[in-house]
Specification:
Distance between the termini: 18 Å
CATH topology: Archaeosine Trna-guanine Transglycosylase, Chain: A, domain 4
Strand content: 25-35%
């Protein structure tokens, strides 16, 4: 199955370069349809460029605080010199939404076109 999602330029480029391999999302109704071996097409919201990835694994947690404890910060989209802070995700998903749905780290592999 093919799913579509939008990304800002920075995470898009980090996935495209192979640095970021865990996509962080709310585990809402849309994301509950994602299964291992499905494909996701990411669209860069600034350039409309598209890339496709394969879903390798789904890592489900109650909130981003828990999720961040289990992964290398670069795999989540941070540079080595940056501080990885789970509250950064509150720009996109409120604490209430996290409590309601839980969160998912979608482990992905870039498909070369």
């Amino acid at each position: 199955m093919l799913h579509t999602m939008k990304l800002h330029s920075r995470p898009f480029e980090m996935i495209n370069s192979g640095k970021k391999n865990i996509e962080l999302r709310l585990y809402d109704e849309k994301r509950k349809n994602i299964k291992v071996d499905d494909l996701i097409e990411f669209t860069n919201i600034d350039t409309n460029e598209k890339i496709r990835v394969k879903v390798l694994k789904l890592h489900k947690y109650n909130n981003f605080d828990e999720l961040y404890k289990h992964f290398n910060k670069v795999s989540l989209g941070y540079e080595e010199n940056e501080v990885a802070n789970p509250s950064d995700m509150e720009l996109y998903y409120s604490k209430e939404e996290q409590s309601q749905y839980g969160v998912v780290g979608i482990e992905i592999e870039l498909l070369k076109s």
